[in-house]
Predict the structure.
Amino acid sequence: MDDVSVHSIPDLWYSLSAEEADGLCTVAQTALTAQGSPAEPLFYDGLEEFVHRIPESIHSVLNEFRDSSSLCALHISGVRVDPDRCGPTPASWQEAVDDGRQELEEAQLALLASSLGEVFAWPTLQRGRMVQNLLPVESDREEQSGHGSVALEWHTEDGFHQDRCRYLALLGLRNLDRVPTTLGTVNDLRLTEAHRSVLRERRFLIRPDLEHLRQLAAFAPDSEMLRRAREMYENPEPVALLFGDAEAPCLRIDAPYTTALAGDDEAVEALTAIVDQLTRAQRDVVVDEGDVLIVDNYRAVHGRRSFQPRFDGTDRWLKRMSVAGSPLSKATAGPDARVLAI
Ligand SMILES: O=C(O)CCC(=O)C(=O)O
Ligand SMILES: [Fe+2]
């Protein structure tokens, strides 16, 4: 096989010193007092002032990650998390929507995420909450979502959408069984030139994941947005799975929702090849209590191993935020610029 991959490049790991962790936590506390809840879009208006105040050494790491042309993920450990104050893991995302007990943890994640770019949410997920809760839900065991407990397959976050995030930021509040998040990157792909060129053509369909459609159907059954989301499901525009610089391409895929165009056998083969390559190089990353994992959503795909949920308040619990790659455009944004329209 013609190996056109770059050598696998390690992710960036950074462990906060006690002083850095305290510094971040103190700024988060001040931001909470001044800005309100990190669950709300308003928290982020004028947040730059607080982002500037987090320790310079943390900024340097985030800048190194953002400015790198090869790094795919950044791990930061040692963020202050107080699991007792956070409370038991809720039984559903609905239960967690109005729970303010994790505000301090959310504010720390919000400051780190905001240092990379503008954060946003989708109105179709967890009622537009800016920080989402990832936890296993009993009725969703089999779902390909942050609430399932079956293996979550390879995906670019919101891979179907042109306004998908550039970075996905996860913070661990609780992960007693050390259930791993999985990572696969463009640097790991060993593809033939023939497969590569097929993957660079608009010969693939990525449908919206059912979580968007499900939540929209439940809270806005007659909305224009639901109509558009259904249209994207029924009539998706063909897209390329590899794009950008030929030497350092970007990647876009959502394995359970991606298909080749009807009758395109070459595209079927190339799709199988890219999924196989990601799986060959799969890496496990445990997002444990106080760990932040930031994934470059253009260079890496992620998933999660299957696990045995507990449903007793001690389940795995992560917080998630999305960061845009370029300034949010008011023209394409919904009523509130930070909650994008589908
Ligand atoms: O639970 C995880 O580690 C990842 C979940 C995930 O992919 C998501 O919610 O987007
Ligand atoms: Fe995801």
The domain at 12-323 is CATH 3.60.130.10 (Double-stranded beta-helix). Residues 1-7 have pLDDT under 50 and may be disordered. DSSP finds ten helices and 15 strands in the chain. Residues 155, 157, 302 surround fe (ii) ion (ligand 2) (CB under 6 Å).
